[in-house]
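Here we describe the complex-level prediction in full. Unlike the single-chain runs in Section 2.1, the two entities below were treated as one system.
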Amino acid sequence: MATAGTSLVFRQLFEKESSTYTYLLADKDTKEAVLIDPVVDTAERDAKLVSELGLKLVYVINTHCHADHITGTGKLKTLVPGCKSVISKASSAKADILLEEGQKVTFGKFSLEVRTTPGHTNGCVTYVLLDESIRMAFTGDTLLVRGCGRTDFQEGNPATLYDSVWGKIFTLPDDTLLFPAHDYKGQTMTTVGEEKRHNPRLTQTKEKFVEIMNNLGLAYPKQIDRAVPANMMCGLQD
Amino acid sequence: MATAGTSLVFRQLFEKESSTYTYLLADKDTKEAVLIDPVVDTAERDAKLVSELGLKLVYVINTHCHADHITGTGKLKTLVPGCKSVISKASSAKADILLEEGQKVTFGKFSLEVRTTPGHTNGCVTYVLLDESIRMAFTGDTLLVRGCGRTDFQEGNPATLYDSVWGKIFTLPDDTLLFPAHDYKGQTMTTVGEEKRHNPRLTQTKEKFVEIMNNLGLAYPKQIDRAVPANMMCGLQD
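The structure predicted for the assembly as a whole is:
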């Protein structure tokens, strides 16, 4: 989607087995593009779209080291030679570029600013698009539409996640569009204002939130034992 | 999504059993809203979102009489009293408002213009948003991302569909954002320019297109025998 008053190209893409959203962002003028959170199973679809739109993929970015799917990062590096892998330093995962708080990922005239938002994992970050005419952020598994990521595996910590959301995401303007890494109910996006009012977990006190998160009783993630080791290596187990 | 330079609220929603996209559009200022192609199974989700966003649902609109799911129109009329059902006159389906070529559906300062695009069914229409700062159209099953609707049941006719796409959709500006009623590969949208260049079927000659469509060999739609009679009555079989 190219939005009015900006030359941003924006596409949301879905991988149905893991209910993962992948995002393609590009500068329509310079053609420089980034992919956020691609999945290995749909990497070829994403590479084809980049090609059909005449874009130049410069960065393949992850919000964190995923436990529910194998990232498409490594596969995209082979499909689209020249692009670089990007993840947070705190994830301890391998990548060409390791990011810390406040650093930027630039494509054409746009930049994504890194906000560290640990809690689902230690290395979770939220990428905030810096643009005058459209406010958007990519929250990974930190904040989902009317939900949030699990805190019962990897380095999950509910109190940390609560502080991340309130300190780094809910401090953005209310009309900021939020795009999560997953959704299981067919919802595609939300806003800061909506989640501050209607998120059933994060509108609770921190103590109540911790109690809720510690008692979800969820099943062990199906793909975690193969996904995490692979994702620590950009999706490739050499 | 509220886009820059406009007060349009826009949300794409997905129903996974039938891979259907439902669209919520609203005027942020007047709060008047429309839903396009809701599904009965997700009608409660959609009504809840309308309520949480503080919107007033005025119209529930269908692009055509669907064969693959039961519309949420009737259920939404009971969940959100006061809204009106809308479909094309040529669909022969029951609704509060029956539309013909060139008519408009207005919500706040926005309007959707009706373009009749038969071929998948006789009553298929494309709704074109009339707005200075963002060009978008809702193509139903007439045009899908890199595909198109089937023409082998109901009143399907591939030559008619081809003429509809080339005469009524591909004549829109290349940067018009197109939103389909379905996608099966996790794609959420496309543009006129992209489909004119990359649609594997519609970039063919009309003769070749008809041949392709007459030889798809697809299975009989699972829900058609209960969906079509229900949808002729706004999703309700009274």
